[in-house]
Design brief:
Elements: E1 5-8, H1 14-25, E2 29-34, H2 38-51, E3 56-60, H3 66-80, E4 85-88, H4 103-131, E5 134-138, H5 151-171, E6 176-182, H6 196-205, H7 214-226, E7 235-238
Parallel strand pairs: 1-2, 1-4, 2-3, 4-5, 5-6, 6-7
């Protein structure tokens, strides 16, 4: 990854920040996208630039705005003069029980989880082709096995899995496109999605008997970007084996 440039969406916190740190440790220069978490993104960039000068930059954009998506790719490319990789990590996650789904929920969940990755990939394709780069989409094990009461989210991630395979056909041979499908890695910040009983059930359902760590996802992303030159169109589950029981 020495000298290569990777754009990571949703990079300010949690899994996105872990991905950015892992790629940076591997020698990449990273462009950290954020929507609202500018302060956290700037702090991460300062940390990374402190470890290696001029190796991290911050770009801010609302991925629901397609004009902003095109500008984001341009800004990311201009940050270091090239673009070698794209990690579509940014995601919205909330319940949408059937019977109460509205248009705003559809726009938010489909926009962040499916539409934005498509248009980001489209905008980045010329640069990625020139660099013979790669895309990694952060999918979800529930793309294959829907999560109850999360209808729109499950549909969106299923679409992202399909998009991953389709882009592998469209952008090959110059650009490889793969996905990582996490299981339970970190619980949602707001504490509203899963109560203690549900968390215990999920852990009990996982063969490795625990939830994962953001570093587990970051390692898989690094592998697909750096160490998998003959892998494209694949989705790697990082779930402790939980999908075996879903």
């Amino acid at each position: 990854m020495q000298g290569r440039v990777v754009l990571v969406t949703g990079a300010a916190r949690r899994i996105g920040a872990a991905i950015a740190r892992e790629l940076h440790r591997s020698g990449a220069r990273v462009v950290l996208h954020c929507r609202r978490s500018r302060e956290a993104a700037e702090a991460l960039a300062a940390e990374l630039n402190g470890a290696r000068a001029a190796s991290a930059a911050v770009v801010q954009a609302d991925l629901l705005d397609l004009d902003a998506v095109a500008r984001l790719v341009e800004q990311a490319t201009n940050s270091f003069g090239r673009l070698d990789g794209l990690v579509n990590n940014a995601s919205t996650f909330h319940a949408t029980a059937l019977g109460a789904i509205d248009a705003e929920q559809w726009k938010d969940l489909m926009g962040s989880n499916l539409r934005a990755p498509l248009f980001l990939a489209q905008a980045a394709a010329p640069e990625l082709k020139r660099a013979r780069g790669a895309i990694v989409n952060i999918v979800d094990i529930h793309a294959e096995r829907p999560l109850k009461d999360y209808v729109v989210y499950s549909i969106a991630k299923s679409g992202l899995a399909g998009l991953t395979r389709s882009l592998a056909l469209e952008l090959g041979p110059e650009v490889r496109v793969n996905g990582v499908a996490p299981g339970a890695i970190v619980w949602p910040d707001d504490g509203q999605h899963f109560d203690a009983g549900e968390k215990s059930r999920i852990v009990a359902q996982t063969p490795l008997g625990r939830i994962g760590d953001p570093a587990d996802v970051a390692g898989a992303v690094k592998y697909l970007l750096l160490d998998a030159p003959f892998v494209t169109g694949q989705i790697l589950a990082v779930d402790g084996g939980r999908s075996l029981h879903l």
